[in-house]
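input
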Amino acid sequence: KAGGRLQETITVLKSLWLEPEVSFKGSHFNLEGASLDTRPIQNGGIPILVAGVTSASVNLAATLADGWVHPSGGAPECIERGCQIVKQVAEMAGGILALWIW
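output
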């Protein structure tokens, strides 16, 4: 599955940042009672941004990450279209996504 490792990584990181103890069983990571001694001070943990224009990266950004970064280059209309897609997917998933574009 495209983006599977990144999806699990984001899930595990967010869990470790927010929970005192984490158990997780996935295709790439298996944790049992894992914890972090030092957690981020920001509410919700460190913002995670996903870059990319593939369907997998856009869906991952919109459903699990905190923001989306369009890769450098590309025509303005491509960037605008990417923003529209990310916003639509985020809204369908019930989330609000920050768009980080350069």
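quick obs: The first helix runs from residue 4 to 18.
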